[in-house]
Amino acid sequence: MARAANTEIATAQAEIAPPVSSFDCVIERVVERTLARLESSPLPVRALAVRTETAAKLLGIDVETLVQDRRSDAQRVPFVRYGRRVLYRLKDLDAVLDSLPRFGGAR
Hints:
By secondary structure, this protein is mainly alpha-helical. The protein has 2 domains: 2-39, no CATH class; 49-99. The chain has helices spanning 2-16, 22-39, 52-59, 63-71, 90-99; strands spanning 49-51, 80-82, 85-89. The protein has a 3-stranded antiparallel β-sheet. Helix 3 packs across helix 4. The radius of gyration is 27 Å and the shape is elongated. It starts with a helix and ends in an 8-residue tail after the last helix.
């Protein structure tokens, strides 16, 4: 009877956790090494600048609005070019938001 119970438990465990292949072991080692590298990283990675699409989302405006602003003489949102890329510094986006008038609520 005890042998039958042990067999049932072993069968249930095999159904839950399939046998580990050598590929699974390799994947597990890669994941462990990657996590170790991330944990030992001295500083968290934080973007200093974002592309037009992300800047528009952060400001809550349409991408085309930023494109038009970039082309106008009175640029309200500062940007930089890095090669062909157009980037918006996060500190500049914060400054733009801070410069806008506030309506309602505490001031």
